[in-house]
Structure formats: structure tokens, C-alpha cells
Amino acid sequence: MNYELTARSAWSGRTLERSTSIWDTAAFVKNVTVNGWSREFELNVHDFPGEQTLSRTRRGLYLNVRVLLICFDVSNIESLENVQEMWVPEADEFLHDVPRVLVGCKKDLRIGREDPLTPWQKKNIVSPYKAEKIAHETEALAYFETSATRREGLDELFEYMAEVSVSMTKSVPKPLPKSVVKKDWGIRKLFSRT
Question: pTM here?
Fold first, then answer.
């Protein structure tokens, strides 16, 4: 995921810092209105490598997480399999009380392509229905699809994160099994927040 493009295009606020080491990290700030209140939010984005040997190193970065985004590439079924096999178990271990949101990145590689998909690409594409099923199974509060290159679905995703973060001061939101789907497939809220 091009975290900087994603965060900049969604937040277009000021950049606090950016660093690159074993994984990429960036911090951004933007004013967001939630429930009628305008508030400044800081978004810290960590693009973690998936090596199992780094799980203990990643644990230190999980402190003070309010909302966890678990991202995968919609053009790569293995990426979604990693969500189930690695990222969700790690989240269960280190962030068991933190609400999570499943995010399908690079939706432009599946929707609205100008060139036809090859048979290999068709086999590896993750359908929205498959992703929604995984989101439900992994107790994600919602499923969003985004395209950083087309700047689609990003504002909705980050506004939702801010809303969930604010609601965390009162109580942890509980997922309810009711699907609400936006027509353009840009955002899928799987569960009612009421």
C-alpha cells in the first residue's frame, strides 16, 4: 500500500513526520467533524512487513492504537489469506479490544480497468463478497474498498475511523450482522453502528 499517497489524498492535512526503516511510518493531522464537533485527528500510518520474525518488534507499535486497519490488495488473493492467517491472529493477541476495519486496497485494479484481465488475474482477484465474508468472520466493524491512485473511498474510510475513535471514549462499538452497501462498491459498511 502506498501509505503516503493514501494518507495525503484522504487527509490532505499537514505532515508531522515520515520515516523509513524496516517498515514505513508517517504521521498526518487533519480536522474532521464527527457528530457535529470539529476536532483535530492525528493519523499514524505504519506499513508493516509480514515477516513472522518481526511480530515481537511490531508489538511495540501497537500501543495506544484506537482503530486498527487491516489492509489487503484486492488483486491478490494471497494478500487476503494473510489477513486470516497472520494479521487477524496477531491483532487478536496484541489488540484484542481494539476495533478493526478490513480495507481492500487497489480497487482500481479490479473495477473500471481499461484493459481486460488475464486468466491469472481473474483467478487472483478478491470479490467484494469474499472480502465481506472475511470481514464478518474476523469481527471487523466494517469493510471498505479504496483506490489511492484514484482517491476513492479514502475520505469515507478516515472519517469512519475518526467516528469510531471518538465513540471509543464512551464504549467499544459492537458489530451487528446487518449489511449496508453503498452502490458504487467504494465503501461497504457491514455492520450497523446503532
Answer: 0.71
Closest CA to 157 of 167, 147, 171: 147
The residue with cell 513472522 is 52
72-128 pLDDT tens trace: 989 888 889 988 888 888 888 888 788 999 999 888 887 666 666 677 667 778 888
Helix, strand, or coil (residue 50): coil
Quote the number of domains for the chain: 1
How are the residues of the chain apportioned to helix, strand and coil, as percentages rounded to the nearest 5? 35, 25, 35
Indicate whether 32 belongs to any domain: yes
| Residue-number span of the structural domain to which 160 is assigned | 3-189
| CA angle 171–174–177, rounded 5-degree value | 160
pLDDT of 133 above 90: yes
Q: Which CATH number do you get for residue 157?
A: 3.40.50.300
Give the cell for residue 73: 490488495
Query: Is 132 within a domain?
Result: yes
Q: Is 194 domain-assigned?
A: no
Whether residue 157 lies inside any domain: the answer is yes
- Per-residue pLDDT of 26-42, as tens digits, reads 566 667 777 777 777 77
